[in-house]
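Action item from last meeting closed. Structure (62 res):
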């Protein structure tokens, strides 16, 4: 599961990413699940919105 959310960068994130404080970022909360449906890994990803584009491809079955 992924949950992308736009927001402003914190001071620490801005410093680490080399962007201005309060610049727009995309925060992605990601959870990986085992075959049994148990969560086994999580990740919090923060990317500068002005420098990166998030693209999802979702196959649609017929």
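Sequence:
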């Amino acid at each position: 599961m992924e949950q992308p959310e736009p927001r402003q960068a914190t001071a620490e994130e801005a410093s680490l990413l080399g962007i201005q404080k309060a610049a727009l970022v995309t925060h992605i909360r990601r959870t990986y699940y085992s075959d049994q449906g148990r969560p086994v890994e999580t990740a919090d990803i923060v990317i500068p919105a002005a420098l990166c584009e998030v693209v999802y491809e979702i196959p649609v079955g017929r």
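Note appended to the action item: The first strand starts at residue 2 and ends at 8.
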